[in-house]
C-alpha cells in the first residue's frame, strides 16, 4: 500500500493542530512564577479535537488511540477552559461548537485494533510551557507495525530559517523533513559511520523521565564523548532521524522503575527514525510493541540509534 491519502491527511491535520498550539503558546506569559497548566490543557484538547475531526472525515472507520479524553472537560470547573478551547478551534473551524469539540476529542478514546491511529496532541508538555521543544505526534498502525508517522515540531531549529519542522515517514518510502517556513521537503538520513561531528546523544530535559547517570555512562562506553543534548518531546527522534545525533537513550528512571511507555509517545518518532535508516528497540533489543495495548507493557526503556552503533549500545547495557 502506498498510504498516499493517509499521509496527506495526517500532514494537513497536524499542521492545523500546530497552528492552534502556536497561537495558544503565544499567549503564555513569559515569566510565570508557578506554571499554570491551563494553556497546555487548552492546547492539547484543541489539538486532539482538530486531528480527530480531520481523521474521522476521511477515515470514519479508523479508531484513534489518543492521549486525551474529554470527561474532565465536561465538569463545571472546566467550563472556562472549554470556552477558550472553542474560541481557538473556531479560528480553524469557524462553525465548531463546544459540543462537537467534546465529541471530536472523545473520538480519541479508540482501542488498539488491526488498524488504528495513535495521537499525542502535545508531546513534551513541559517544553511547550517553557517555550521549548514539543511535538504533535500522529501515527497509523496496521498489523502491529507503524505504517505512517507525522511529527510536527513547531520549535525545531532549522538552519537559515524560522524554526519549525514536520517529520514525515511512510513504511518503505523513506523519511523527510518539511521546513514549514518554506514548504521545502528534504529527505533525511541518520548519522553515517564516519561522521564524528554528529556522534552525540540526546535525552530528556526532565530528569525524572530517564536514568541520566546510566545514560551518560552508556554513551561514554560506546565512544560518545560530547555531553548529552537535552531536548523535550519526540523531537529527539527527529534529531536522530536527521543526523543531528547518533543516539537517543531513555532508560527507566530508578524512581519510577515500573513506568511503561505509551505508544503515542513513540510510534511517530520510531517510523521516522527507521525510515531514515536508524533502529529503534527497547533496552533489551526487543522491538517496541505497538500491537497490543496503549502502554507497551512488555518493553522497558527505549534505545534509538543510527543503527550502526545499536548492537554496541545493547551490548553495553546487557553485558
Ligand atoms: P520527554 O519530553 O522526552 O521527557 O517525554 C515526555 C513524555 O514522558 C510524556 O509524554 C510522558 O508520557 C512521559 N513520561 C511521564 N513520566 C515518565 C517517566 N517516569 N518515565 C519516562 N517517561 C515518562
Ligand atoms: Mg507525550
Ligand atoms: Na501529551
UniProtKB/TrEMBL annotation:
Query: Could you tell me which species this protein originates from?
Result: Planktothrix agardhii (strain NIVA-CYA 126/8)
- CDD domains associated with the record: PAP_phosphatase (cd01517)
Q: What EC number(s) are associated with this protein in UniProt?
A: 3.1.3.7
Q: Write out the entry's keywords from A to Z.
A: Hydrolase, Magnesium, Metal-binding
The name of this protein is 3'(2'),5'-bisphosphate nucleotidase
Q: Which PROSITE patterns match?
A: IMP_1 (PS00629), IMP_2 (PS00630)
Q: EC class of this enzyme?
A: hydrolase
Reactions catalysed according to its record: adenosine 2',5'-bisphosphate + H2O = AMP + phosphate; 3'-phosphoadenylyl sulfate + H2O = adenosine 5'-phosphosulfate + phosphate; a myo-inositol phosphate + H2O = myo-inositol + phosphate; adenosine 3',5'-bisphosphate + H2O = AMP + phosphate
Amino acid at each position: 500500500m502506498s498510504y498516499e491519502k493517509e499521509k496527506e491527511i495526517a500532514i494537513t491535520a497536524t499542521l492545523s493542530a500546530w497552528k492552534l498550539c502556536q497561537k495558544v503558546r503565544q499567549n503564555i506569559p513569559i515569566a510565570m512564577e508557578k506554571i499554570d497548566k491551563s494553556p497546555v490543557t487548552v492546547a492539547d484538547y484543541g489539538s486532539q479535537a482538530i486531528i480527530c475531526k480531520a481523521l474521522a472525515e476521511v477515515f470514519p472507520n479508523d479508531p484513534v488511540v489518543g492521549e486525551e479524553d474529554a470527561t474532565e472537560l465536561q465538569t463545571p470547573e472546566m467550563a472556562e477552559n472549554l470556552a477558550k478551547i472553542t474560541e481557538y478551534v473556531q479560528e480553524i473551524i469557524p462553525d465548531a461548537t463546544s459540543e462537537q469539540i467534546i465529541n471530536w476529542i472523545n473520538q480519541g478514546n479508540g482501542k488498539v485494533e488491526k488498524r488504528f491511529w495513535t495521537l499525542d496532541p502535545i508531546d513534551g508538555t513541559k517544553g511547550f510551557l517553557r517555550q521549548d521543544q514539543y511535538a504533535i505526534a500522529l501515527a497509523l498502525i496496521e498489523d502491529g507495525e507503524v505504517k505512517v508517522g507525522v511529527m510536527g515540531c513547531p520549535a525545531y531549529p532549522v538552519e537559515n530559517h524560522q524554526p519549525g519542522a514536520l517529520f514525515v515517514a511512510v513504511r518503505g518510502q523513506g523519511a523527510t523533513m518539511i521546513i514549514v517556513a518554506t514548504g521545502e521537503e528534504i529527505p533525511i538520513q541518520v548519522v553515517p559511520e564516519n561522521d564524528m561531528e554528529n556522534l552525540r546523544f540526546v535525552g530528556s530535559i526532565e530528569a525524572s523521565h530517564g536514568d541520566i547517570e546510566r545514560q551518560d555512562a552508556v554513551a561514554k562506553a560506546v565512544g560518545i564523548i560530547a555531553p548529552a543534548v537535552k531536548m523535550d518531546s519526540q523531537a529527539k527522534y527527529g534529531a536522530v532521524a536527521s543526523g543531528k545525533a547518533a543516539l537517543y537513550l531513555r532508560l527507566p528512571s530508578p524512581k519510577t522503575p515500573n513506568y511503561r511507555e505509551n505508544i503515542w509517545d513513540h510510534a511517530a518518532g520510531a517510523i521516522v527514525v527507521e525510515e531514515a535508516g536508524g533502529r529503534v528497540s527497547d533496552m533489551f533489543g526487543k522491538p517496541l510493541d505497538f500491537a497490543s495495548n496503549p502502554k507497551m507493557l512488555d518493553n522497558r526503556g527505549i534505545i534509538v540509534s543510527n543503527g550502526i552503533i545499536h548492537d554496541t549500545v545493547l551490548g553495553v547495557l546487557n553485558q
